[in-house]
Design brief:
By secondary structure, the protein is mostly helical. The protein has one domain. Helices cover 80% and strands 0% of the residues. The protein has 11 helices and no strands. Helix 3 runs parallel beside helix 6 and helix 3 runs antiparallel to helix 8.
Amino acid sequence: MMKTTAMSVSMRNDALGDAVRAYALEAKYEFLRVLRTPAFAIPSLLFPPLFYLLFGVLLNHGNSAAAHYLFATYSVFGVMAPGLFGFGVAVATERERGLLALKRVAPMPPGAYLAAKMVMAMAFAAIIYFMLAIMAASLCDVRLALAQWLGLGLIAISGVLPFCALGLVIGSRANAAASPAIVNFIYLPMAFLSGLWMPLSMLPKFIGDIAVLWPPYHLAQLALAAMGREHAGSATMHVAFLVAFTAICFALAKRWLARAT
């Protein structure tokens, strides 16, 4: 009896180890695949620092308040791309080529495919935040407590998930040729309408009124709160919106992908 129990525990441990290795390998190769795709890696990694250099460093003329505000909002802007493009374009392409159907019959955990893409997006988000943090501290004299640096980094890295979910919705419906245009059509206007490029107080009132509809707005308010800067609404409200948005998008994408494959 004890031998049987020991064998059962050993088999479960082996199965768990195999699953962990499968998830780790899928995440590793997904990250390497994306890193070796210049059309994705270069814009995702370089555009946010370049935008911050232009607007946060060169055009704000040493304005400390602007530098702090733009560091928070460009951290949000930077993490949008890995989620939207990493899922929206990649999933559409892989679905159209039949790779999703192949993944389903492969001997791998069913969640490894999506988990690997989420880990990839979060890794890119971490790299982008790290580059922006170095620029903010060295070029813009942004000074934060260690807890604020870490809190903002956590918000930026975990904040990529709503955009992964939105990208997955796009990838589950759009074809490979149309998906980049659809993602760009959503990406840049949504960033502008959420006040990521300039405070909403500087924009027409109706833009500020509808800003609460967009995920980047809520993530930006959490980022500003983490820095101790002026922000709108409560953290609970912003987190609730982002969690609900992410859950709804993942549920829709799951349903559509099941039909597609």
